[in-house]
Amino acid sequence: MPKFLKDIYVRLYQIFYGSQEAPEMTVEQLKEKLDRREDVFILDVREPGEYELCHLQKAHLIPLRQLPERLQELQKSKEIVVHCKVGGRSSRAVEFLRKSGFSKVHNLKGGIDAWAERIDPSLPRY
Question: Which domains, ranges and CATH numbers included, belong to the chain?
Fold first, then answer.
């Protein structure tokens, strides 16, 4: 798929399924934090089948639909970076977490798809 079409798709997905209010972090910013060994909790809100296809090292899987009943697994004092495939579900998760009292939470802009495209091309894209 040409990049401009993908960008349009991602933007439309975010408009319809995710808010523009979620604070974002780029994949490059996350990589810098990980390279500096900063204490960042990576939360993957995709479905288990997607996680099995590919996932970020040290990512913790809590599917979006399970997030409300699994909040106790997260620490409000930790920086949390939430991702999904392209950013829609993770944007909704960030909104929910912020409303639940989590202040150090960011949406990974472009999701694991952007990570595979710009950071780790060995990750399968689906």
Answer: 3-118 (3.40.250.10)
